[in-house]
Amino acid sequence: MRFLPLAALLLATPAVAQDPALARAERILARAPVIDGHNDLPWELRDAFDADVAPIAGDTTKTPKPLQTDLARLRRGHVGGQFWSVWISADTTGPRAVELTLEQIDVVRRMAAAYPRDLELATTAADVRRIMAAGRTASLIGVEGGHQIDGRLSVLRDYKALGVAYMTLTHSKSIAWADSSTDAPRAGGLSPFGRQVVAEMNRIGMIVDISHVADTTMRQALALTKAPVIASHSSARALADVPRNIPDDLLAAIGANGGVVMVNFYPAFLSAEWRAWDQSRTAFAKSIGVPASVYGAKSPAPLVTWDAAHPMPRVDARTVANHIEHVARIAGRDHVGIGGDFDGIGGTAPVDVPGVEAYPVVFAELVRRGWSDADLAKLANGNVLRVMARVEAVAASMAAVPAPVATEPTAG
């Protein structure tokens, strides 16, 4: 995957030539490609294609189930590093959760093995820099929920050995040792075992991801961790008041921790108006017994009619930029990044950012708002690379600390 020749090609196209902000964004991203914090392509491949990785070599907008990611679109979007989520449902617990997670890790590894000219597995900041310099996309792995370790520190360590870079402490449901933002509390934030998980992640050099977690969990994790954290795909609650987003006091705390908030592109997390519209649409669909998960012309006929009478509120690159700027204002420009959540957002996306190919559109909006090249490079990859390097340094400083035994047998 070669970024510079592509940039030259794009700069020659009329759309880019006529938009100086987009031309500048392309030049910046050719030098400093995006490292995106969260993409659910591995599960979409499993769900729609029986875990076959071949579809990503073609145009996934034209597959039977259209996707938001493929190799060509990664090139067009200047994606130099991607944390691939190895998500499994929060309803899957126990040993089966571990088994499915291993299968999802295998999907990522097979993607990289099948397309070595485009992708290469990475586990360190140095790996990422080297792979980006070679014009490929560094492929990192993120476990999206503490239920996936089945209450066992040994499993956490095994995931690290298989190349897992981060673990999100919870997904959509609270577990015995950590509370989720979208479920009733069970642990009071973090249980004693939950605190041990954070400490062990520091020891082994795994990034603590605090997307999805309850505010109490987030505060306790920030107080405990010796290393910077990330929120791999979260936005600003001040702009869209939903539990999955982060309030200003915690944005500031993440900045003080040295961490990074990687802004999510899901319209429901970007716009309260869009979220209310979608909730009304879903309620209507349920009342007539049709699925609400398809948008646009392919929706069931009654929903097409409903949509015509209730136009979708516009969410676009400007909306994304609003969240980026808010995080930067509260946490600092050294503490914001990109976490698109593509292929995990139900086929929806900002209208002018339909998939991973459109990151330059977001950066062009920030160019128009006066962001410097240096700050845009930090947003693209510098901030998260700094976190990765610091997490590695903390782990190195703890190398003599023995691996602990769990303080309590606790399942997800």
How would you characterize this protein structure?
46% of the residues lie in helices and 10% in strands. With 412 residues, the protein is α/β, with parallel strands linked by helices. It has two domains: 3-271 and 315-397, TIM Barrel (Alpha-Beta Barrel), CATH 3.20.20.140; 272-313, no CATH class. The longest helix is centred in the C-terminal third of the chain and has 25 residues, at 373-397. Keywords: Dipeptidase, Hydrolase, Protease, Signal. One of its GO terms (molecular function) is metallodipeptidase activity. InterPro entries: Metal_Hydrolase (IPR032466), Pept_M19 (IPR008257). Its EC number is 3.4.13.19.
In short:
GO terms for molecular function: metallodipeptidase activity. Helices cover 46% and strands 10% of the residues. The chain is an alpha/beta fold.
Short descriptors:
disordered N terminus; 2 domains; 10% strand; 412 residues; TIM Barrel; single chain; Pept_M19; Membrane dipeptidase; globular; EC 3.4.13.19; dipeptidase; alpha/beta; Metal_Hydrolase
Unreliable segments (pLDDT under 50, ≥5 consecutive)? 1-12
User: What is the N-to-C order of secondary-structure elements (H for helix, E for strand)?
Assistant: HHHEHHEHEHEHEHEHEHEHHHHEHH
Count of helix runs: 17
Mean pLDDT: 94
Question: Per DSSP, what share of the residues sits in E-state strands of 2 or more residues?
Answer: 5-15%
What is the CATH superfamily of the largest domain? Answer: Metal-dependent hydrolases
Question: For the report, how would you describe the main beta sheet?
Answer: 6 strands, parallel
**What radius of gyration results from the CA coordinates?**
20 Å
How many domains make up the coordinates?
2
CATH top-level class of the largest domain: Alpha Beta
Shape-level CATH architecture of the largest domain: Alpha-Beta Barrel
Our measurement of the CA-to-CA distance between the termini, rounded to an integer number of angstroms, reads: 39 Å
> The CATH topology of the largest domain, please?
TIM Barrel
